[in-house]
C-alpha cells in the first residue's frame, strides 16, 4: 500500500558510497554495515539486500528484533552481529541461527555457555571491552575472568572478535580520550592473545574513527552513517577533505523523501492560513496542501520556516505543520497542478534539501532525524 509520503533509496548513490568506503579501508579490513535504527531510517528490508548487491556481507544491529528482520531478507552467506539487547529467552534463537553477539558482561557470557551446552552448538561471540566510554563492556578484572571461563568451555564458544566502542571519535576535542581507549583496548586484546585466545577480528572504529584514525581500523570497521551518505560530523568531513586535493564531498545521500500535491487553493490577501494566526497572506496567494505532517515524521518545528521542492523550485512552508498535512506557498509556479512531486528531503533538479538544512541544526542531528523517519512510510529501492 502506498503512503502519503514515500521514501526512495537510490542504488546508484549506495553503490557509490560503498565503493568509496571499500577504497578507503582496503581489502584486509572487513566492513560491517550498521543497520540499527531501521537502517538509520532507510528501512532494513530495502537496505540490506541493496547493500548485499554491492558486496556487503556483514550486518550489525542493536537488538534481537532487528536481527530477526535482517535474517528474513539477507543472503545465506551474510553474517549478523547483535551489539546490544537480547532478552534471556531469545538467546537460544540467536545461537541456533549462528548470529554473532557481543558479550558485555560476565552474566551474558555464562548464559551463552549454558545455552550452547543445551544446544550442543557453539555461540558466536565478540567480547566487548570497557575502555573508557563507561557504557558497556568488560573491564580489566572481568576480562581476566572471561578468559578463564572461555578456556574452561572451549566446546561451547566460537570467539569471533574482540571489540570496543569509542566515545566520540567525531570530535577532535576527544582526541586524548580516544587514544587512551585504544591503548586499553590493545592491552586487553593482548591479554587474550597471551592466553591463547586469538579471534579472527578486532574492531573499534565506527564511521568517524575509520576516517580520522586509520590506525584504529584493525581488521574490521563498523560503518553506519557514512554508507547512507552522511558524515558523523562536519569536523570529520573537514578532516577528510583537508588531506585531499578534491574538496568536494565524496558521498552521495541515498534517501529521498517525497510526497505529492493533494490540493491547490487560492487565498485572498489578508486571510490567515492553517490553524490560528501564525501566517497571514500579505498578498493574493496560491497554496498547495501536501499530505505530510508530524504524524509522518515531518517536524512541527518547521512550521513557517521549512521549505519543499516542487517543479525544481524551493518553496516556503507557510502556517503550522498539522498532524497529517502541511501547506506550501506555490504562488511562484503558475502552472502547478495536483499530483506534482514534492520533495521533503533530497534532490530535485539542481536543488537539494539536506537532512541538516531540514533540521536547521548541527550535523550531529542527522542520526536522530534519519532514525526517526517512521517505519510505516512505504520505502522503494530505485536506480
Ligand atoms: C551505531 C554504532 C556504530 C556506527 O556508528 P556510525 O557513526 O554511524 O558509523 C558503530 N558501533 C557501534 C557500537 C554503534 O552503536
What would you note in describing this structure?
Catalyzes the interconversion of L-alanine and D-alanine. May also act on other amino acids. By secondary structure, this protein is of the alpha/beta class. The chain folds into two domains: 11-242, TIM Barrel (Alpha-Beta Barrel), CATH 3.20.20; 255-353, Beta Barrel (Lyase, Ornithine Decarboxylase, Chain A, domain 1). The protein has twelve helices and 18 strands. It has helices at 11-25, 36-40, 44-52, 64-73, 91-96, 106-119, 140-152, 175-194, 207-212, 234-242, 355-359, 365-371, and strands at 6-10, 30-34, 58-61, 79-82, 100-103, 123-128, 157-163, 201-205, 220-223, 255-260, 263-267, 285-290, 307-310, 313-316, 326-329, 341-348, 351-353, 378-382. The longest helix is centred in the middle third of the chain and has 20 residues, at 175-194. It is elongated, with a radius of gyration of 24 Å. It binds pyridoxal-5'-phosphate. The site of pyridoxal-5'-phosphate (PLP) has 12 residues, from helix 9 and strand 9.
Radius of gyration: 24 Å
Low-confidence stretches: none
What count of structural domains?
A: 2
Q: Roughly what fraction of the amino acids lie in strands?
A: 15-25%
Task: Please work out how many helical segments DSSP would assign.
Answer: 12
Fourth-tier CATH superfamily name of the largest domain: Alanine racemase
Structural class, please? alpha/beta
What is the approximate shape? elongated
CATH architecture descriptor of the largest domain: Alpha-Beta Barrel
Oligomer: single chain
The distinct bound ligands, ions and cofactors come out as: pyridoxal-5'-phosphate
Any idea of the CATH class of the largest domain? Alpha Beta
Question: pLDDT average, as an integer?
Answer: 94
Cofactor: pyridoxal 5'-phosphate
Modified residues (N6-(pyridoxal phosphate)lysine): 36
Keywords: Isomerase, Pyridoxal phosphate
Pfam family, one: Ala_racemase_N
Amino acid at each position: 500500500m502506498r503512503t502519503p509520503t514515500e521514501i526512495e533509496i537510490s542504488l546508484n548513490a549506495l553503490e557509490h558510497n560503498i565503493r568509496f568506503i571499500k577504497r578507503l579501508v582496503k581489502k584486509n579490513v572487513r566492513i560491517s554495515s550498521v543497520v540499527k535504527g531501521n537502517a538509520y531510517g532507510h528501512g532494513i528490508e530495502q537496505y540490506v539486500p541493496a547493500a548485499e548487491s554491492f558486496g556487503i556481507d556483514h550486518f550489525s544491529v542493536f537488538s534481537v528484533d532487528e536481527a530477526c528482520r535482517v535474517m528474513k531478507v539477507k543472503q545465506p552467506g551474510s553474517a549478523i552481529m547483535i551489539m546490544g539487547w537480547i532478552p534471556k529467552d531469545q538467546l537460544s534463537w540467536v545461537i541456533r541461527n549462528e548470529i554473532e553477539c557481543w558479550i558485555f558482561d560476565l552474566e551474558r557470557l555464562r548464559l551463552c555457555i549454558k545455552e550452547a551446552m543445551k544446544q550442543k552448538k557453539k555461540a558466536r561471540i565478540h567480547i566487548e571491552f570497557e575502555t573508557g566510554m563507561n557504557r558497556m563492556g568488560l573491564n580489566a578484572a572481568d576480562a581476566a575472568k572471561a578468559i578463564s571461563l572461555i578456556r574452561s568451555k572451549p566446546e561451547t564458544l566460537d570467539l569471533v572478535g574482540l571489540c570496543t566502542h569509542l566515545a566520540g571519535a567525531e570530535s577532535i576535542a576527544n582526541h586524548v580520550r580516544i587514544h587512551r581507549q585504544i591503548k586499553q583496548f590493545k592491552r586487553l586484546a593482548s591479554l587474550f592473545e597471551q592466553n591463547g585466545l586469538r579471534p579472527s577480528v578486532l574492531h573499534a572504529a565506527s564511521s568517524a574513527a575509520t576516517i580520522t584514525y586509520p590506525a584504529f581500523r584493525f581488521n574490521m570497521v563498523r560503518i553506519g552513517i557514512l554508507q547512507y551518505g552522511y558524515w558523523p560530523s562536519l569536523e570529520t568531513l573537514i578532516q577528510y577533505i583537508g588531506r585531499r586535493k578534491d574538496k568536494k564531498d565524496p558521498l552521495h545521500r541515498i534517501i529521498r523523501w517525497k510526497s505529492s500535491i493533494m490540493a491547490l487553493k487560492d487565498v485572498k490577501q489578508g486571510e490567515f492560513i492553517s490553524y490560528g494566526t501564525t501566517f497571514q497572506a500579505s498578498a493574493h496567494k496560491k497554496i498547495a496542501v501536501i499530505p505530510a505532517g508530524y504524524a509522518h515524521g515531518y517536524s512541527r518545528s518547521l512550521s513557517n520556516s521549512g521549505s519543499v521542492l516542487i517543479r525544481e523550485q524551493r518553496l516556503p512552508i507557510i502556517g503550522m505543520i498539522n498532524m497529517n498535512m502541511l501547506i506550501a506557498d506555490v504562488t511562484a509556479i503558475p502552472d502547478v497542478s495536483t499530483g506534482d512531486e514534492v520533495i521533503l528531503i533530497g534532490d530535485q533538479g539542481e536543488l537539494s534539501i539536506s537532512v541538516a538544512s531540514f533540521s536547521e541544526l548541527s550535523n550531529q542531528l542527522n542520526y536522530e532525524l534519519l532514525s526517526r523517519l517512521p517505519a510505516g512510510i512505504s520505502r522503494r529501492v530505485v536506480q
